[in-house]
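Title: Prediction job returns without error message
Component: structure pipeline
Severity: low
Priority: P3
Assignee: unassigned

Description:
Job completed but the reporter wants confirmation the result is attached to the right record. Sequence as submitted:
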Amino acid sequence: MLLSKMPQFTEIDEIKLLCFYRKLIEAIMIEKTDTPINI
């Protein structure tokens, strides 16, 4: 990831970002299928 190379960008921020994207993708999938997805 390019963001990891930036000094102000920490591992914790990366984990938060990944969690955010996962929730976003889940929300999109639920909207498309109308069924909850368990991960």
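Comment from assignee: result matches the submitted record. The two ends are 23 Å apart (CA to CA).
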